[in-house]
């Protein structure tokens, strides 16, 4: 894997710390550890999103959803229930995991639900009124009236 020197990026930018951190995470992420559990991110409305994580074998009590450092962190730890059981084939992975989803500014977690082996996290984007585009009225100023002088 290539190694990039990101020092010039940090020196030449102000206020882009989150972008630089995001680039660090993307470039240093190991693809093998990031494939479990599978997930979907969908847009469910103009300002609404949903993260769906496949958590087969986990109950709602085994899962934790936290909002930490501008990211949604989903983690799971399964209590050991395999004592006395002998598997011929074990294809359902119930190993512990932690998955992070970085959130953009003004994204709020609305709630989470667990149904049919899927964990759904609903998100909504709430842009403050001060940041929404607004139209500025243009006043019309008539040209100044001419004052004519008469010679007497």
Question: Strands, helices and their partners?
Answer:
Elements: H1 7-11, H2 17-28, E1 39-45, E2 48-54, E3 63-68, E4 71-76, E5 97-102, E6 107-115, E7 118-125
Antiparallel strand pairs: 1-2, 2-7, 3-4, 4-5, 6-7
Describe the structure in your own words:
The protein has 152 residues and is mainly beta. It has two domains: 35 residues, no CATH class; 92 residues, Immunoglobulin-like, CATH 2.60.40.790. 11% of the residues lie in helices and 32% in strands. The strands form two sheets. It has a four-stranded antiparallel sheet, with no helix packed on it. It has a three-stranded antiparallel sheet with strand order 3-4-5, with no helix packed on it. The protein is elongated. The termini are far apart. The relative contact order is 0.16. The mean pLDDT is 81.
What's the rounded overall pLDDT mean?
A: 81
Main beta-sheet strand count, sense and barrel state: 4 strands, antiparallel
Regarding quaternary structure, what we see is: single chain
Strand order of the largest sheet: 1-2-7-6
Number of helices: 2
Helical fraction equals 10-25%
How many domains comprise the coordinates?
2
How far apart the termini lie comes to: 93 Å
List the uncertain runs.
Answer: none
The number of distinct β-strands equals 7
Q: And the CATH topology of the largest domain?
A: Immunoglobulin-like
Give the class-level CATH name of the largest domain: Mainly Beta
- CATH architectural label of the largest domain: Sandwich
Basic shape: elongated
**Helix and strand succession?**
HHEEEEEEE
Please give the radius of gyration in angstroms: 27 Å
Q: Briefly note the structural class of the backbone.
A: mainly beta
Quote the beta fraction: 25-35%
């Amino acid at each position: 894997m290539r190694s990039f020197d990101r020092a010039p990026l940090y020196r030449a930018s102000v206020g882009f710390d989150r972008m630089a951190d995001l680039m660090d995470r993307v470039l240093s992420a190991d693809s093998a550890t990031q494939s479990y559990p599978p997930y979907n991110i969908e847009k469910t409305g103009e300002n609404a999103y949903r993260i769906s994580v496949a958590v087969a074998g986990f109950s709602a009590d085994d899962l934790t959803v936290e909002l930490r450092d501008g990211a949604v962190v989903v983690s799971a730890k399964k209590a050991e229930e395999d004592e006395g059981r002998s598997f011929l084939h074990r294809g359902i992975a119930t190993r512990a995991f932690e998955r992070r989803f970085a959130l953009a500014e003004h994204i709020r977690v609305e709630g989470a639900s667990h149904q049919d082996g899927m964990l759904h996290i609903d998100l909504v984007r709430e842009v403050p009124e001060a940041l929404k585009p607004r139209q500025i009225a243009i006043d019309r100023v008539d040209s100044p009236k001419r004052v004519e002088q008469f010679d007497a």
